[in-house]
Design brief:
A five-stranded antiparallel β-sheet has the order 4-3-2-1-5. 10% of the residues are buried. Strand 2 and strand 3 (58-66) form a beta hairpin. It is globular. It contains one helix and five strands, in the order H-E-E-E-E-E. It has 105 residues and is mostly beta strands. The chain has a single domain (9-89), classed as Roll (SH3 type barrels).
């Protein structure tokens, strides 16, 4: 649920892109060290890995697996606006499956 008290003054103009970028950036910052699944439309591309840091409006993620095996285990710097869909593992919520396991192939 949207917490009106968390919206900075500069976002009160209701620029939807600025609001989206702000809340996505905060969500990733609050979950540094957690595993995440990202779908990036521009390739299309899949990254599953650990959130390392957020620098301005870029997410730094250490990939465990991608849809291109040669890029597994690489560190990616992804612009927040390029993320179409994401899921962050949190305690007590479903885990991201290991898609390299044969039972998911």
């Amino acid at each position: 649920m949207l917490d009106e008290n968390r919206i900075p003054k500069q976002l009160e103009t209701h620029n939807i892109n600025a609001v989206r970028e702000y809340f996505l950036t905060m969500e990733f910052k609050e979950n540094v060290g957690e595993r995440a699944l990202l779908l990036i439309a521009s390739f299309p591309f899949l990254i599953i890995g650990t959130i390392k840091e957020v620098v301005s409006d870029y997410l730094v993620i250490k990939a465990e697996v991608t849809n291109i095996a040669d890029l597994d285990d690489e560190v990616f710097r992804v612009h927040i606006d390029d993320i179409e869909v994401f899921y962050i593992e949190k305690p007590g919520e479903p885990k991201i499956p290991d898609i390299r396991d044969d039972k998911y192939a």
